[in-house]
Amino acid sequence: MKSTSLFGLLIIVVIGCLTTFTSAFNFVDPLEQDNTAILETIYGSVQGLVYDNYAAFLGIPFAAPPVGPARWQSPIDPKSWAPNVLDARNFQAGCPQMCELPPGTCPNVTSEDCLYLNVFVPLSVIQNTTSSLRPVMAFLPGGRFEQGSAASTLYIGDTMVSSAEAIVVTINYRLGALGFLLTDDFTGNFGFQDQRQALYWIQNNAKFFGGDANQVTLVGQSAGATSIATHITSPLSFGLFHRVIVESDPWTLGLKTQEIAQQYSLLFANAVGCSFKNADCLLALTVDQVLLGQQKAQQSLDPLIPLASFLPWTPTIDGDDIIDQPLNLIKAGKFYQVPMIVGSVSEEALIFIYQAAAKNVSALQYEEALGLIFLNHAPFINDRYPPIVGADNRPVLSTLGTDYIFVCPVRNTSRYIADIQASNNVPIYNYQFQHVTGADFWGPNFPDCVGHVCHGSELLYVWNSAARGGVPLTDGEQQLSINMNNYWMNFVVNGDPNVGLPVPVEWPTYNTTTDETMIFQTPPFVQSGLLKSQCDYLDEMGYDNPR
Fold first, then answer.
1. Which of 56, 125, 128, 414 has the smallest set of CB atoms within 10 Å of its CB?
2. Domain Carboxylesterase type B, which positions (predicted)?
């Protein structure tokens, strides 16, 4: 087997780990409704749709279109459309992408004009039956910083707003080269700045939708979770949110340095036939040329930095906005101290390993892959995660990828956060989603996730989307979905997952002494010392080693 194939055996964990691999829903569009309502924003009025227990205002611009000379520029405020009323009854385009997510999760339409958000509000706001402002949940979808969209019926916040009387906002941001190109002329991090621009929009407009700008919970999964880790360590974002929920962040992978980001931007420029220093040539590219060039550039693997090679468009450490790797800043106590929920699912890496290796992986191939990735630490890893001679080692690779990239860094990071925030009585809560869904909701292209708990499995439950997607849950599974929704929304509303809506078991705050994690099963339970021996072992090696 060639080295680049070995490379893929472990590295492919990364290809998708910032991708929201959610279920292959066959959605029936619920957003067909004749009843409408009009609310204000600082830019003009918006007309949305009213349902039995919530209202939806879709496709509201939070920034000017990043098109023409505004491509690869920081976002700016949208122009006012007053005195006209904006039609906010339909989702707007997702950002340009070559989407390979499961069916039902890719945007139907894409465009560079994609900086839109969606707002879901309780019916009480429309009916003027409440005078108090309600907490806000702002959601950043995943997708490897190259795919995904807020314009998905997976992320309709109907259960959330109706159960907790909260406001839910889902947010688009620029992806791939259009979101993160770094050259002498273009400073990069545009997708990250888009997220912050949306948070500014919430600060300025939440009140018009019944939302409290002083109670914003920032929630994200996968790439969205990596974004949140970056926001809590970027001082320019401090104060724009007040709680966070971080779902399945691959903490180990980190962000790009400027040097590496420029290397991959140079590969992109070469792929599209432009000089790295020729801004006019880059700006003249069509969207299709950008996407094709992005795809071509990613085929050029740098064996010295393999993980970065598979994630060319993450945010970049610029020393000003993004100061350092989030994990480094958290360890140093340089982060925004807010109540947090942080967690993972139990088989995060399985989908990526089985996508990379269609056939069995031998013990020799496994050991070669470890050497390529971990260098002198390979024996250390091999001792704890030994291959099985004569057997398929994809399950071993899956366990290693899950523990090293996701689960143990969650615990490691939480230990630092818990110790630092304890003096200010600011809580952190840990979880792991472990339930194997009985129904096959992955579709024909992801058979290896059937009967497993792959990356993104929890989203079906958090958003209570099964019925909308035609996924038959058992009574116990439906109750788990209600429980998770209640925990999440209790935290959004009260900063404590146990206060508010009914929950089956007390979720303890995380601390290094008890090391307690909420396990989401049917029913949920609390476990102390989740993967303690494995994580103690990996903590000793550290999480900044793999290339």
1. 128
2. 37-537
Residue 233 inside a domain? The answer is yes
Residue 546 belongs to a domain: no
- Whether 547 is covered by a domain: the verdict is no
Phi, psi of 461 (to 5 degrees): -85, -45
Per residue of the chain (547 residues), give pLDDT as tens.
333 344 444 443 333 433 333 333 333 344 455 699 999 999 999 999 999 999 999 999 999 999 999 999 999 999 999 999 999 999 999 999 998 876 667 899 999 999 999 999 999 999 988 779 999 999 999 988 999 999 888 899 999 999 999 999 999 999 999 999 999 999 999 999 999 999 999 999 999 999 999 999 999 999 999 999 999 999 999 999 999 999 999 999 889 999 999 999 999 999 999 999 999 999 999 999 999 999 999 887 566 665 556 677 999 999 999 999 999 999 999 999 999 999 999 999 998 888 778 899 999 999 998 988 888 899 999 999 999 999 999 999 999 999 999 999 999 999 999 999 999 999 999 999 999 999 888 877 788 999 999 999 999 999 998 888 788 999 999 999 999 999 999 999 999 999 999 999 999 999 999 999 999 999 999 999 999 999 999 999 998 744 4
CATH of the domain at 266: 3.40.50.1820
**Which tokens go with 381?**
């890893």
21 residue type, one letter: F
Where in the sequence is the domain holding 48, given as residue range(s)?
3-541
The domain total for the chain is 1
* Closest by Cα among 492, 473, 495, 484 to 518: 484
Q: What is the three-class DSSP state of 539? A: helix
C-alpha to C-alpha distances, 524 to 441, 481, 487, 505, nearest whole angstrom: 22, 11, 11, 7
